[in-house]
Fold this protein.
Amino acid sequence: MFVHLLGGLELATSAAEHALAQPAAVSGYAFTAGRLWSLAGIALGVAGMVAGGLALARSVRRAAGVALPAGLAGAVIGGLVVAAAEGGPGTGYGIVGGYVALVVGLVAMVLGALALVRSRRTG
């Protein structure tokens, strides 16, 4: 019986080693550098959009000051990813995410600018 337990443990260990040796992929798509930079740009843009939305809803000038640089950073990262991409969608260069980061970053900048204008008018 002890031999059977060791055999089962050996099978489980080799299965875990096989699974860990596989590349990090989701549905056949690996996380390349372009895709990771695109995700970083999108995250910055979304953070800027949230801050800009809060600034518009509550007239908080400090949140508008966060929305503008976060949106700018997201848009710049997205633009750089798009400019550096050597292929179209599905090639691993992150071009689709770059466009999304560019748009989301620009929206965050617009929300932050609107919130700043509004806070200056009311305050």
